[in-house]
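Q: I'm teaching a short session on how sequence maps to structure, and I want students to see two examples side by side rather than one. Could you give me a first protein with its sequence written out and its structure tokens following it? Keep the formatting plain so it prints cleanly on a handout.
A: Of course. Example one:
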Amino acid sequence: MKRGSALIIVLWVVALLSVLIGGFAFDMHVEAKIVSHLRKRLKAEYLSKAGLEYAQALFIHSQEVKGKGDSDEMKGKYWYDSAKRLRQGYAIMGLTVKLGEGTFILDILPEPALRNLNAIKDDEDWDAIFTVGGVPDDINLRKELIDCLYDWRDPDDDRSTDGAETDDYYARLDPPYKARGHKATVSSKTSKVMTPDKMVNLDTIEELLLIKGWSHAILYGGYAEDGDTNSAPMTGIADLLTVSPEAGETVNINAASKRVLMTLPGIDSTLADAIIAEREKGGRQGLTGGAQISEDYFYTDVNNLFSRVPELNRLTAEEQQRLKALGGTASSVLRVRSSGVVHGVEYRMTSTLGVTASGNGTAQIRK
């Protein structure tokens, strides 16, 4: 009897120890996984930073590249094709560089390749942007969005027909807040507040979410109403817009995506494809991997665009005039997204690069 009791006690002790040891081993396994992930994440972060430095180097070299007159020695540099592409106003998408046990992936997009939200003046332009973004073709909805945006930006408190001002809408919310342009005054120290006859600029694309009628689905895609799966989902408009003050009103036709091109006057899917096909003859779109530009196919100006894409001459006179006014090729400011990847762990960073004239007359790269 005593031996049986002792055996039972021993079995209970062994079982208890097994549970304790198993729990300890599990904790060790989880902690090891966490430490491993954090280590990879730290490496991915530094790879991402290396990518930003690499992009800055490409931008600096792009200021040195001239094109056909470049020496054979310069053309043999590892950075030449990418720097040349930036010089010509192109975008670079998915440029992958292996470094150590990981890689960094660069997307470099000229800011003028997007529509400058703060520079859009015509309702027709907004209508084209809404169409590309899949916003329902509802005149009342689109007019409300545009009127509320204008009321948000203007310095007066006079509500547009379908708009909203601080006193009659935003001040009554919980919590209340003021429209961006509410009683704005002229200031010479900041570019955020403009003269009373003009609009106040938005600082970020996400600021649109503060404006009446503007939703997350309109900006980033999704259904107009939660649970409404009967209608087609919106694709969003955030990828079409920028608020960079240096982007200007014109759109860089050498770097603009198909969706951005389709927001320009008279440009449909077929014409956008034709524009991209003509400018990308020399290499794969985006210069991913080791693709090279064998010849110079970038558009030198809007007139060059019309001469090389004859289908554009079929547009109406008004569409041609507006397209020539909005089309450009300049890109002095770049948006850089760098993704560091180590064994499946990714870390992303974004930055902007531009050129600033210094006091001695030379150009300096700024971040």
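Q: Perfect. Now a second example for contrast.
A: Example two:
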Amino acid sequence: MRLYEYEAKKLFSQFGIPITTGEVVKTKEQAKAFAEKLGKPVVLKAQILSGGRGKAGGVKFAQSPKEAEEKTEQLFATKIKDFPVNKILVDEKLEIEKEFYLGITLDRINYKLVMLACSEGGVEIEEIARKDPKRIKKISLDVDQRFHPFRGNSMAGWLGAKGDNLKLVGKIAVSLFKLFKQYDAKLVEINPLILTKDGKYVAADARMSVDDDALFRHPELAEMGIEKRHEEGEMTEREKRARQWGIPYLDLDGNVGMFPGGAGFGIMGNDFIHYFGGKPANFMDSGGGPTPERLAKMLILLDENPNVKSIFGARFGGISRCDDFAKGVVMFLKEHGLSKPMVLRMTGNMWKEGVRIFKEEKEKNPEIFRNIEIHGIETPIEEISKRAVELAKKA
């Protein structure tokens, strides 16, 4: 889960890492007022959960409060990498002598933590690592290993820091490591770490991603307004609603609503929809042994999604029973009603009972079943996938 730059900088500051003087604004008037208060040129940085915003036009410079106001208005009126700009960090513009890179991430191949440093900042570190790995200094550590000051000083010396600055940069490296460990981070980086013309080292930018499965251990983040979100982009209203219901759900850009049984079956279903020329509108997981009430809520998310043109339902009964699946669908039909065509299939545990429930309910209430095609084990899953794509194209 990615943090905004201003959120990461707050945590940097708590760990003694020098940061720029800045303020988050939501209006052009606030930007102008802060620039006047600061009394110097500023940098306007769109706060989006995506990298490469500078190249995408999400960073602008302003020499005066009036210019800050005008350029803030421009940023709020644009989308950066398809994300709307709702917040802007107004930062002091630094007088730069040199830029560096300093970061920590996970080495998933060797099961290590790795600190990286580069004598060039403001660049894509992955590209440098690919083209010229010798320009990057690496220190690998076990997950339970301490990052001692002498290692930080070694890293600082490799970056060219001398005298008092050697210890200063070394301390920044140690603090960055402590921050990484304390908040169960997956990535923490300063890019660039600036050496100013008056000899100070400052984190001009901050990127931080934490393990969202560990958020329960950090209530202090929630108190700062840092709650579960995507790695890139804010959660949609449907995703927020699904989260409140405890349903793993992710909006995608297609038009076939996915109503699967389990994450593995959902992934397979998404692959089938793609194979037959369709595009899934979402990814969703019912979880093991879902209740009929939970299944009914899953269908609400799909039926009320204007992008969904058809619904693909597939249940493989294992821990989850197909009769509960049928009860959940019937509950949804009676309480909510279905406005989109849906094709579904059941196999496995209690699938015959599920088919029986559908048959009996359809005899009682044929009107609520007019948009549904129901199949059992006799129909291949490929045919169901193909049919869902056809229904979406006809809509």
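Q: What should students look for in example two?
A: Point them to this: The CA atoms of residues 77 and 373 lie 45 Å apart. Also worth mentioning: The first strand starts at residue 22 and ends at 25.
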